[in-house]
Amino acid sequence: MSEKFDVIVIGAGPGGYVAAIRAAQLGLKTACVEKWLNKDGKAVFGGTCLNVGCIPSKALLEASHKFAEARDDFEEFGIEAPDVKMDVKKMIARKDKIVNQLTGGIAMLFKANGVTAFEGTGKVLSGKKVEVTGHDGNNQTLEAENIIIASGSVPAEIPPTPLTEGLIVDSTGALEFEETPKRLGVIGGGVIGLELGSVWNRLGSEVTVFEAMDSFLATADQQIAKETKKLLSKQGLNIELSARVTGSDIKDKEVTVKYTDAKGEQEKTFDKLIVCVGRRPYTQSLLSDDAGVSLDERGFIYVDDHCRTSVPGVYAIGDVVRGPMLAHKASEEGIMVADIIAGHKAEVNYDVIPNVIYTFPEVAWVGKTEEELKADGVPVSTGVFPFSAIGRAMANGCTDGMVKIIAHAETDRILGMHILGQNAGEMIHNGVVAMEFGSSAEDLALMCFAHPTLSEAVHEAALSVDGHAIHMANRKKRK
Length: 479
Prior knowledge:
Layout: E1 3-10, H1 16-25, E2 30-34, H2 47-52, H3 54-72, H4 88-113, E3 116-119, E4 121-125, E5 129-133, E6 139-149, E7 153-155, E8 168-169, E9 183-187, H5 191-202, E10 206-210, H6 222-235, E11 238-240, E12 244-251, E13 254-261, E14 264-270, E15 272-275, E16 279-281, E17 314-316, H7 327-341, E18 355-357, E19 362-367, H8 370-375, E20 380-386, H9 391-396, E21 402-408, E22 414-421, H10 424-436, H11 441-445, H12 456-465
Parallel strand pairs: 1-2, 1-6, 2-3, 6-17, 8-15, 9-10, 9-15, 10-11
Antiparallel strand pairs: 4-5, 5-6, 7-16, 12-13, 13-14, 18-19, 19-22, 20-21, 21-22
Cofactor: FAD
Subcellular location: Cytoplasm
GO molecular function, one term: dihydrolipoyl dehydrogenase (NADH) activity
């Protein structure tokens, strides 16, 4: 006889484990199925984010940034640190230690909240049943009133550059290099490609980023994007736009990439090649033929605004459904669905989900870009303030970048905030909170911000919307 639960969650990534914990906290008998095995063959929780995504990449970004800062910038601060060296193996070991601590922490949270964990692969069957195939090959069937699918996503591959052990790798493989490659190619100029390219560029790699589109960071505000490209190029990233990869050859432990650009057919040789062309929803062996759960034309599970699938009582969240593939978006959807199952009203405000690129300086934004708003015919007023005029940024030696606030020209309501600068990922929450509460630019302008802080640039940008910035000359006349 199959074991029965109120809720079964398939996947223990940032969507699934959060949903499971929340459901259990709300008094629901909850199970969570996870198939991930770490490189030691041990079952672990956390999904892509904790194991091979958000967390390990940030550990490498932080380590490489500290190294580059010590090598290139300490002298300006009066700190003498000659012959700074990086032990890549130690850097990787530290990353692994952090990952193990966090994944182990989820196991403890499951135990503390009474979530029953099942190790193996989950498949949704008809009649609200889930088949769990253990790593030993044995099957068991679970039943539940509600099922939450949180199976996540996997790196996309492209035919011209098939993955080859040690030479052509995806984002996961790029987190495991044991030494710095002299020449590194990165296919894809999106978030993942820029972050991984930055890590190895700081450690001494000659990095070329191939981006097929003719614009850089097309989804970001283009004023911010253009400045970001300029800064990353200055750091040493060779960013090739309109560069479409057509093939690759492997010879003598080298990879030659063939591509076309405005100049015609080109080729370039590397010691390592990272393929970062996006991610695709993971639905392999997830649904039985009669499960009744519908997929859209791109392979995502179809859901409504409350993450309900085409089958009553079956929900799907995170990377496997529409919307940005962001860990925090998945977590909020997990909480929403658990609350709905428990009988509460819940929503996710998809208009105020922040995006962050953890290069240095960081790029962060929430809401609409100026291009999107103008394309929709929305009248806008913008305020921009550079970090070069902020005392704390000068003291930190990080004066690159700016804060940009976009407000409705008639109502003054904030429609978007875009930041390029040190700690932009922290400061963007000024915009998230403001937009969640429907603030105007004047609301931010009237608030008192601590001095000296980087966030003063947010205050000044809000003042700048009406031409009232204090610490720079305004282009607009005072009203």
